[in-house]
Amino acid sequence: MRLALFQPDIPQNVGAAIRLSACFRVPLDIIEPCAFPVSDKSLKRASLDYGPLAQISRHDSWSSFLQHDARNAGRLVLFTTRGATRLDDFVFQSGDTLLFGQESVGAPAQVHACAQARVIIPISAGARSLNLSVSAGVALFQGLRATGGLPQDPARP
Q1: Which residues of 22-57 are buried (b: 16+ CB within 10 A; e: fewer)?
Q2: Which end of the chain has the lower number of beta carbons within 10 A, N or C?
């Protein structure tokens, strides 16, 4: 399983995704351009010292991401407020790439067209959406749990 962020707007969300990548040992794809320099201080603050533990691939465009060898290993699963399948009804596969769009505008039509599945995380009526890094954590945990990919020996204090 992989985690992918399409042209993220908020460095703190990318920092949190780096932590998810490190803690769950899941590769993270960052599809540029980002709305901030990847060297941004707030990104480093949010990711703390997890950067070296994360498996990060940066792609300079959507097309370069689609051509990446690891991208072709499984399905592209887009998480979107316009999803067709609820998270709790979705059947994950271990090779899935979980893709999240820009915080400000979501994913454009060309990204929707490339996705093999579009999933929505159910939330209360009247709420617009979850934060991107929260959504990524919820989805990634559910996907890893469903495919037996959670860490076997969780870290203990």
Answers
A1: bbbebebbbbbebebeeebeebeebbeebeeebebb
A2: C
Share of the chain above pLDDT 70, in %: 92
* 9-13, 61-65, 151-155: range with highest mean pLDDT: 61-65
The whole-number pLDDT of residue 46 equals 57
Cα angle for residues 111, 105, 58 (degrees, 5° grid): 55
* Residue 139 in domain: yes
Going by the DSSP 8-state scheme, the letter that residue 106 receives in this structure is B
Q: Is 114 exposed, middle or buried (0-12, 13-18, 19+ CB in 10 A)?
A: middle
Q: Residue 34 sits in which domain range?
A: 2-147
- Measured at the CA of 82, the angle between CA 76 and CA 87, to 5 degrees, comes to 60
Number of structural domains the chain divides into: 1
Model confidence at 43, in pLDDT bands (50, 70, 90)?
low
Query: ∠ CA 51-52-54 to the nearest 5 degrees?
Result: 65
Q: What is the pLDDT of residue 88?
A: 96
What mean pLDDT is reported for the chain?
90
Is residue 53 situated within a structural domain? yes
CATH of the domain at 36: 3.40.1280.10
